[in-house]
């Protein structure tokens, strides 16, 4: 490869890395549109306005929606697999079950395979539960409270709901208590410490000490 070609490739890669692209919609394959629509509305997902022949719903707090309708995808009904992220998988499962939705038991992943119950250390990404729609499309409900480094840019930190923000503040408060115990001093600048901690959880940055 010539130096000019390599330089052009590097320049193109740099431009693409800074290109602002957002995941907007996932198309899921269903066999009965009305049945699927009723199911996802039972989950509490918002029914959006769409052109005729397209049904689109959006989970509360999500920037990405799902669509289904005749001819939208050649995939077989029930073949989709995707993740739903929550801050407390046990609480989310309890709410869904209380609404009459069938959800598998909470489990956590280990090197030896799945094990019943949430992760003992409640680490992010490890605790999950399984939800399936009437066609068998699989949704893995995954508990995430702290992101891996680089997963989300710090400048894009946001909270999708009041409950997510409240949970983040509770975790920050608990971590701040430990911070004051370590220093042996009262931290009057706790608002900035809370903010830095909450941003670090989402962005994967090193939390304040």
What does this structure look like?
- With 209 residues, the chain is of the alpha+beta class.
- The protein contains five helices and nine strands; from the N terminus they run H-E-H-E-E-E-E-H-E-E-E-E-H-H.
- The protein has a five-stranded mixed sheet with strand order 5-9-8-6-7.
- Helix 4 (162-183) packs across helix 5 (190-203).
- The longest helix has 22 residues, at 162-183.
- The radius of gyration is 21 Å and the shape is globular.
- The N and C termini lie far apart (47 Å).
Largest sheet: spatial strand order: 5-9-8-6-7
Q: What percentage of the residues does DSSP assign to strands (E)? A: 15-25%
Structural class: alpha+beta
Q: How many whole angstroms does the radius of gyration measure?
A: 21 Å
First CA to last CA: what distance?
47 Å
Name the overall outline: globular
Describe, in short, the structure shown.
This protein is of the alpha+beta class and 209 residues long.
Characteristic terms for this protein:
about 210 residues, 5 helices, about 20% strand, globular, alpha+beta, four-stranded mixed β-sheet
Layout of helices and strands:
Layout (H helix, E strand, L loop, with lengths): L2 H15 L7 E3 L5 H10 L3 E2 L7 E4 L6 E4 L12 E6 L2 H10 L8 E4 L2 E4 L10 E6 L5 E6 L18 H22 L6 H14 L6
Parallel strand pairs: 1-4, 5-9
Antiparallel strand pairs: 2-3, 3-4, 6-7, 6-8, 8-9
Helix pairs in contact: 4-5
């Amino acid at each position: 490869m010539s130096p000019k070609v390599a330089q052009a490739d590097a320049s193109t890669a740099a431009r693409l890395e800074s290109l602002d692209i957002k995941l907007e919609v996932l198309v899921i394959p269903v066999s009965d549109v009305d049945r699927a629509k009723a199911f996802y509305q039972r989950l509490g997902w918002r029914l959006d306005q769409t052109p005729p022949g397209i049904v689109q719903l959006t989970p509360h707090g999500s920037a990405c929606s799902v669509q289904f309708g005749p001819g939208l995808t050649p995939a077989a009904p029930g073949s989709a697999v995707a993740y739903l992220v929550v801050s407390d998988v046990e609480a989310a499962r309890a709410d869904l079950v209380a609404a009459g939705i069938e959800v598998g038991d909470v489990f956590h992943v280990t090197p030896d395979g799945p094990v019943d119950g949430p992760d003992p250390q409640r680490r992010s990404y490890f605790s999950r539960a399984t939800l399936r729609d009437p066609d068998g499309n699989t949704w893995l409900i995954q508990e995430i409270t702290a992101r891996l480094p680089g997963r989300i840019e710090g400048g894009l930190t946001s909270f999708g709901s009041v409950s997510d923000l409240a949970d983040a503040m509770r975790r920050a408060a608990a971590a701040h208590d430990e911070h004051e115990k370590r220093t042996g001093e009262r931290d009057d600048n706790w608002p900035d410490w809370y903010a830095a901690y909450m941003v670090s959880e989402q962005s994967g940055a090193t939390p304040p000490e």
